[in-house]
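Fill in residues.
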C-alpha cells in the first residue's frame, strides 16, 4: 500500500511541469490595519481554526467516536494541525512573504494528510489507514520543505489538490464505518468554496472591502468545525469490512 502510494506520487511529479511561487501571491486585496494589527481581516479571520481545535478536544475525552487507538492519534494530529494553521496563517498574514508562508502551509499539510488517512481507515481498511497515517503526514511536511529548498511547488500542490480529489472519491466510492457522511461532504464543499473565494480575492474586493481572502479563512475554518462536530456526534455503523 505504501509503496503503491509512493509510486503514484513519483509518477505524478514526473508528469507535472515545475510550479514556482507567484510573487504576486502575497498582494492581497485588503491590507488595512486596525487596532495596530497589519492586514487585520486576513489575520483575525483565522480564529475559527483555533475555535475548531479547542472544541475538537471534547471528542478526545470520550472513547465513543473511535474504535481503534490509531484513530485517536490521527484526530490529535488533525487538531494540532488545525490549531497550528490558525497560528501560522496569522503569523504569515501580518507581513506576507515566502519565509512566513512556510509556517502557513506546513500545518495545512498535517490537516490534509491526517484527514485523508483517517478517511481511508474509516472507509477502505483500518489497516491501510493506520499504515498510511505517518507516511502521509511526513509526505505533507516534506512537500513544504521541498518547496522552500527548491522553489518547486509541485509536491505541495499534489498534497493539497490530491487530498481535495481523494476525499470526495472515498466518500462516494466506499461505505462508511461511522455516521456523519453528510457532514464530511459539507467539509469538502466548504473547502472548495474556500479555494474559490481565495482565487477571487481582488474581484470580491470590488464590492466587499475585505476582499475574498478572509472569507477563504472563514469557509475553511467552518469546514474544520463541521468535521469536528461530526466526529463528536458520530455513531459506529456495522459494515461488511469491519474486520479488515
Amino acid at each position: 500500500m505504501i509503496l503503491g502510494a509512493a509510486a503514484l506520487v513519483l509518477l505524478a511529479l514526473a508528469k507535472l511541469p515545475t510550479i514556482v511561487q507567484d510573487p504576486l501571491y502575497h498582494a492581497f486585496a485588503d491590507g488595512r490595519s486596525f487596532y495596530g494589527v497589519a492586514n487585520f481581516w486576513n489575520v483575525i479571520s483565522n480564529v475559527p481554526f483555533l475555535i475548531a481545535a479547542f472544541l475538537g478536544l471534547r471528542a478526545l475525552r470520550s472513547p465513543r467516536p473511535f474504535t481503534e487507538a490509531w484513530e485517536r492519534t490521527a484526530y490529535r494530529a488533525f487538531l494540532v494541525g488545525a490549531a497550528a494553521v490558525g497560528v501560522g496563517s496569522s503569523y504569515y498574514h501580518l507581513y506576507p512573504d515566502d519565509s512566513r508562508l512556510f509556517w502557513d502551509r506546513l500545518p495545512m499539510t498535517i490537516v490534509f494528510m491526517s484527514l485523508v488517512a483517517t478517511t481511508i481507515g474509516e472507509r477502505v481498511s483500518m489497516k491501510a489507514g493506520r499504515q498510511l497515517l505517518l507516511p502521509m503526514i511526513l509526505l505533507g511536511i516534506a512537500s513544504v520543505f521541498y518547496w522552500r529548498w527548491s522553489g518547486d511547488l509541485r509536491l505541495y500542490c499534489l498534497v493539497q489538490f490530491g487530498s481535495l480529489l481523494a476525499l470526495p472519491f472515498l466518500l462516494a466510492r466506499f461505505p462508511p464505518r461511522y455516521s456523519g457522511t453528510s457532514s464530511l461532504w459539507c467539509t469538502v464543499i466548504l473547502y472548495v468554496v474556500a479555494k474559490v473565494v481565495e482565487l477571487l480575492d481582488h474581484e470580491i474586493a470590488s464590492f466587499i472591502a475585505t476582499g475574498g481572502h478572509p472569507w477563504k479563512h472563514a469557509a475553511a475554518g467552518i469546514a474544520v468545525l463541521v468535521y469536528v462536530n461530526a466526529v463528536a456526534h458520530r455513531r459506529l455503523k456495522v459494515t461488511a469490512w469491519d474486520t479488515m
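Residues 42-233 form a domain with the Rhopdopsin 7-helix transmembrane proteins fold (CATH 1.20.1070.10).
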